[in-house]
UniProtKB/TrEMBL annotation:
Family: Belongs to the ATPase inhibitor family.
Source organism per UniProt: Loxodonta africana (African elephant)
Coiled coil: 71-105
A GO biological-process term: heme biosynthetic process
Protein name: ATPase inhibitor, mitochondrial
Positions of transmembrane segments: none
Annotated signal sequence range: 1-22
Highest taxon, organism lineage: Eukaryota
Length: 106
């Protein structure tokens, strides 16, 4: 009986820890996470324009990096596929030679 009570306590404790972890560090208003975001931009002015320009620059740089990574990936795939084609063509040629040799031996 003591072991089942202990096991139940451990389960409840673990459940409590998981619940706290799932909630994270939340405020009293969990649905208002975006409140205050963009307040500078809403105020307008030169600072808002500068921030908007920096955001645009950041996202353009991110897109450029992603595009470069994608291009590199596809180039590597092409190189790998060409090597695989060459390997398979050599294998086909090897099998043709075996067939030719078998026909010649008959």
């Amino acid at each position: 009986m003591a072991t089942t009570a202990l096991a139940a306590r451990v389960r409840l404790c673990a459940l409590g820890v998981r619940t706290v972890q799932a909630q994270g560090f939340s405020s009293d208003q969990p649905h208002d996470l975006d409140r205050g975001a963009g307040a500078i931009r809403e105020a307008g002015g030169a600072f808002a324009k500068r921030e908007a320009a920096e955001e645009e620059r950041y996202f353009r740089a991110q897109a450029k990096e992603q595009l470069a990574a994608l291009k590199k990936y596809h180039e590597e795939e092409i190189t790998h596929t060409k090597k695989e084609i060459e390997r398979l063509q050599n294998e086909i040629e090897r099998h043709k030679q075996k067939i030719k040799k078998l026909k010649h031996d008959d």
